[in-house]
Amino acid sequence: MAMRELRYFGDPILKSACDPVTVFDEKLEALVRDLVDSVKPAGRAGLAAPQIGVGLRVFSYDVAGLTGYVVNPEIVELSEETHEIDEGCLSVPELWFPTRRAKHAKVRGVDIHNEPIEVEGEDVLAQCLQHETDHLDGVLYLDRLTAERKKSAMRAARDKDWFWKR
């Protein structure tokens, strides 16, 4: 099992849009293996490549016994019905804030062999698909908070030991 070191809020890679995967080789297979291994510990639902310092469009997920990954994911469907759901992030540890998310989401991408793959889900899986795809676009869940919550979140994050400082 290859657990990769996490990047934390403040690290510029987390605010950068990722490049699409164009080479499907053993390096991609190793990255996917690391992402899947690194999302397995209890309390984790998803992990995007930039969270381990890789600027490629790949994420893994492990929600309610459903584990997998998507290469070059794009959200293709979101329900109009939304809800506020407590959200946290491995790159923003210890902080949880209610975040508005679609209750249903569908993502399309490819697997490590460049074959089409589709993942869809409700509630927590939908939240995970949206959250991880956001990471690949350089968006953190903190960016989706109301102005008041974002102000509180930013203040709290800057006071944490893990906050990336130059």
From TrEMBL:
Molecular function (Gene Ontology), one example: metal ion binding
Keywords linked to the UniProt accession: Hydrolase, Iron, Metal-binding, Protein biosynthesis
Keyword match Translocase: no
Residues annotated as transmembrane: none
EC number: 3.5.1.88
Known cofactor(s): Fe(2+)
One of the protein's GO biological processes: translation
Catalytic reaction equation(s): N-terminal N-formyl-L-methionyl-[peptide] + H2O = N-terminal L-methionyl-[peptide] + formate
Residues engaged in binding Fe cation: C89, H131, H135
A Pfam cross-reference name: Pep_deformylase
Keyword Metal-binding: yes
Domain of life: Bacteria
Active-site residues from the entry: E132
Cofactor stoichiometry and binding remark: Binds 1 Fe(2+) ion.
Family per similarity comment: Belongs to the polypeptide deformylase family.
Function field: Removes the formyl group from the N-terminal Met of newly synthesized proteins. Requires at least a dipeptide for an efficient rate of reaction. N-terminal L-methionine is a prerequisite for activity but the enzyme has broad specificity at other positions.
Protein name: Peptide deformylase
Native species: Amycolatopsis vancoresmycina DSM 44592
